[in-house]
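This section describes the prediction task in plain terms. A model, or a person checking by hand, is given the sequence of a single protein chain and must write out its three-dimensional structure as a string of tokens. No templates, partner chains or ligands are provided. The sample shown here is typical of the held-out split.
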Amino acid sequence: MIIAVDFDGVLHFGEYPSIGTPSIEAKKALAELKKSGHYIIIWTCRNGDLLLSAINWLVEHGFPFDRVNDQEPKNAAIYGDNSRKVYADVYIDDRNAGGLASWDNILNYIAYLESQK
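The expected answer:
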């Protein structure tokens, strides 16, 4: 599955444009998802120097990901472009209706979706 994960308010505890303390639960969950073969796209409104800072922070703190604000290449080929809105099977964002679920609930939901294939 392709999983798009928001940066601010999901992977760290901080107020935009600052970057705060890493969420250990998020890091563990992303590592588990990556190990299970999922494709992880960090999906953020950051750009320019703020985006570069976020990418450097992700690498520095060992968060696994495949792309940032960029389509998985097969989908870019299918749809003929690389729009700003990335295609994903699941979007994880603190601005969801109802807020950000616990990482245990997120992992269980993704496992459920996988079992339905």
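For orientation: Strands lie at 2-6, 12-13, 21-22, 39-43, 67-68, 90-92.
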